Amino acid sequence: MKVNVKKTRRITLLLAMIMAFSMVFAACVNTNDVPEIIDTSMMLEESSEFIEESDDVIETPEGHTDAPSIDGMVNIAPTKVALYGKCEAGATIRVAGGKEDAETIAHGEYYIVEVDIWDRNTLLYVTAQIEDELDENGEVVKAGKLESLPREIVARKDATADTLLDGNSVSVGVNSLLYFDKVVDDVNGNNLYTASQLNKIRDYVTDTVTSYYNDRAGTQDVELIYVLVPNSTTIYPEILPEDVVNPANTTVYEQIANTLAQTRATVIDMKPILEAAAKDPAVLEKYGKIYRETDSSLSDYGAYLTYSEILKKISVAYPDAAPRTEEEFTWNKLLVNGGNLVNYREIDGEVIQEEAVFFTPNFSLDIGTDVTGSSKISSLVKYVDTEDNDYNFFLNTNANDGINGIAERWLIDDTTRTDVDLPSALIYRDYSAVAFSDILAERFGKCLLGKVGELSINLSATAQYAQDGDNVVDYIVVIISEENLDSAFSLAFS
After folding, report:
1. Greatest C-alpha distance within the chain
2. What pLDDT digit, counting tens, does each position of 472-485 carry?
3. Less packed terminus of the chain by CB within 10 Å, N or C?
């Protein structure tokens, strides 16, 4: 269930009277004795949506924190809800009335808090408080404020909750941040490969390399490159609540990195590079975090670092394919609507926004040809709707919609750059590569951008997409995020 207080009031007159009575009663008793449940199920129609009108002005008493807004509520399990809204920056948000009191710290000026509710309709009380700011010795350096007056909202059980997320269940983490539930298994090592399975993966990659190098390329220098991109929670484990994390001694990511190192394939492990950047204060000040905060993707700077590492390898043989420098992009900080974590959780992205840094190339992407199956790089639609502040990636892969979506399968051909020596490539990619797919394609004379999510190598295509005079493409580049490692090596077990 999703409720938005910006909509027309849905409260019945009777419930409004009950709400008013509860406020008067709460003012007359110890707040520790406030009733946890108000059973209004007999008073409301089953289909009703109900919420205290958070748009109504609550006058803030002197010295108190402003009351938070309640902009929406969604059931993330039958008896668990996520409340979200706006508040004073950095406020502590508290919710009473559920099975247990819940608390979180706002992320900037928004909060998302997870609350366990009762099987019946549950009246929740939401407050905010600016806490004292302390120094390293525990001394107060900036005084806080008193707790705000409460907002109220009625939550109820929804037996159908969390059934429509298509395997992309999202939970609320620390300090109002979100995460995909599936990453917990990666962190906790619940899905490790056996030694036998790792041998099969190693043999599969070795056989692929041998066939590519020896059977197809002839005397042509070619290379198979695997690019491993960790999950955001691997770089920022503090997002995950302590009660869901029991870190393993090793992870699937580490298993795959070590196994690939035993083959003739080139491995680019982005984990140490991204970890170093995430800890660099200068990077944080100029570019922000390495991953988006409301989306599971790399930030544009994290994307640039990955793009750069790929092309550093390639430029050893093809100097003209060296990565563009940071100065060849304009970097802009934008406040944008929430990303895929917010959308999968069915939260309003216009409420849960984030400030992120985006790059704009200062060089032309008007490269390639718009014909059937082929596209100019500049024609690739990367974001859903930048005019409406929606910087979610355009992931529609409908070939009949007339849109050159960046997630679709595209040949970037006929680049007509005769003054430089650029290689050709097959590029297999998942969601982690969408942010830099366009600028990566610009560094090749000819390349095929595979459909996002299709990670199995097709060696017969290496000749089909080679440049004139070559037996096969110069490079096969496979860009895989931690959560999709199984998909990339599924053929090893067929």
Report:
1. 88
2. 999 999 999 999 99
3. C
